[in-house]
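Students often ask why inverse folding is considered easier than folding. One informal answer: many sequences map to the same fold, so there is more than one right answer. In these notes we will look at a single instance of the problem. The structure comes first.
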């Protein structure tokens, strides 16, 4: 199971970018500021991945504070 969690944490930032800039962007992400936040977060985590999706989620939520 740890290998699966690590793989999910590594892939999730790419999936986030795909939902903003991909062929079929998420319709609910419309504000430029939200898109910029997603792009910055995802690019940072693609460059320096984390090992588990829980810490990835915690980091994302921490950005809202």
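Output (designed amino acids):
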């Amino acid at each position: 199971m740890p290998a699966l969690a690590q793989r999910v944490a590594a892939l999730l930032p790419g999936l986030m970018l795909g939902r903003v800039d991909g062929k079929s962007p998420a319709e609910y992400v419309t504000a430029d500021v939200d898109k910029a936040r997603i792009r910055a977060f995802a690019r940072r985590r693609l460059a320096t991945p984390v090992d588990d999706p829980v810490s990835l989620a915690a980091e994302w939520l921490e950005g809202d504070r």
